[in-house]
Amino acid sequence: MYGALTSFRIDGNTTRERSVAITDYLTKAWGIFTVRRGGVTNGEVIRVTPALYNTPQDSDRLARALRAAARRF
Questions:
Q1: Of 27, 45, 52, 69, which has the fewest CB atoms closer than 10 Å, so is most exposed?
Q2: Number of Cβ atoms within 10 Å of the Cβ of 36
Q3: Does the predicted model carry a pTM greater than 0.90?
């Protein structure tokens, strides 16, 4: 059982409302489950937790989704 945990922020998106919009977009448009986390320095972040069972294609899809989200938000 191995996994990873990382958080990210799209520049300028530090509010709860924007974080919720980003997580909703990643779920609905890309099928990628993320959660927002508040209370960190400099605003909210989005958390994603890839695991050992994720394939290289899953990682590629995450990268494409994050680029798309950065353009959209």
A1: 52
A2: 19
A3: no
